[in-house]
Amino acid sequence: MEKSKTRNMMIGIFFVILAVAGWRMAGAEEEPGAEMQPLAVSTDSVSYIEKPSVMPLSGSVEGLTSSIISSRFSGQVTNVCVEDGQTVSKGQPLFVMDTVELRNALRVAQNSVNQARAKYANDCDEFGRYQILFDRGAYSRQQLETARTKMLASQADYDSAQANLSSAEKQVAEATVVSPVDGVIANKNLTNGQNVSAGSQLMTVEQLEAVHVVINVEQRDMAYLKMGDSVTVTVDAYPDKTFTGIVDVISPVAGKENRMFRVKVKVDNPEMLLKPGMFVQVQLNLGAPKMVLSVPQKAVLGQKGVQYVFTVEDGKAKKIRVEAGDIVGDRLEIVDGVSEGMTILTDNLDKLKDGNPVQLGEEA
After folding, report:
1. Are residue 275 and residue 212 in the same domain, yes or no?
2. What is the rounded distance in angstroms from the CA atom of residue 78 to the CA atom of residue 220?
3. Contacts for 284-288 with beta carbons within 8 Å, 24 or more apart?
4. How big is the CA angle at 107 (ends 104 and 108), to the nearest 5 degrees?
5. Has residue 26 been placed in a domain?
6. Are residues 340 and 241 in the same domain?
7. Which end of the chain is flanked by fewer CB atoms within 10 Å, N or C?
8. Which residue has better confidence, 310 or 29?
9. Tens digits of per-residue pLDDT, 103-141?
10. What is the CATH number of the domain that holds 277?
């Protein structure tokens, strides 16, 4: 009996606690704004600013010309004369191939020339004698023609031997591979003693006194481009420096994969600060600046691909959907959704909801 009484008392206390909690929650739901204090916020105004008419693009640097260096024949490299990044002049040796076999071939070719020359000289003398005897009637025309044919065959052999000698001399000369242009060594893939195949790429010589900045332009923007247009180029490696170039090459055909047009901007590079492979930012001038509506960048929020700002109406925050454009300095272009002079909230935005009371502070 005593246990049952205690049990009933505990159950009664539990229900009392639940009732009090429910009452408090109900009271909070009935008066949601009773305890909500206005949130202090700063403001700014929608205003017109001057937007430069430029088209920002990303690009990469290429050498004005890039000469691929290879050997014309297979063999072993006996001496590498340059290193990556080294400046070279036109005609300067880059590497030397083993010439033992080449010089042996040259001697064989020279001996062949000597033999062919001697035979040709002998056949010429013989034809001369036959010609004299023919004129005296001691030889028939058939015998004379036979001698002539022999002489002409010897002459052909002599010419062939000279051609082979010239080729052998050229190969010996080309065993020392020289730079075809003034430039800088890049992508060297060569060491002393290495065996190389004819035609395989061993290094490149990049001409860097001027470079090409390569960009890809969409079809809709091609109307803004023409040869000789001035272009501004910047690179993260030199944040305080601006390079100026001109449109030098416009591809007449769009790429098959991205359907974009390849454009090359020529930039003078006397200090060789711009290196092939660098990523750069390009600003194409599209004409006179124009006036656009703008708000501070921090005033624009995004959620699930939708952009919006907060304004104020009757002392409460009001959420407005907007369409943002380009960044201009520390402000953001607004294409649609606001009008000039509209008050925009700029801080405590993460604490705001549509309809929350706000207390306006000073305009930023």
Report:
1. yes
2. 55
3. 284/54, 284/55, 284/57, 284/221, 284/224, 284/225, 284/229, 284/231, 285/53, 285/54, 285/229, 285/230, 285/231, 285/232, 286/53, 286/54, 286/55, 286/224, 287/53, 287/224, 288/53
4. 90
5. no
6. no
7. N
8. 310
9. 888 899 999 999 999 998 998 998 888 888 888 888 788
10. 2.40.30.170
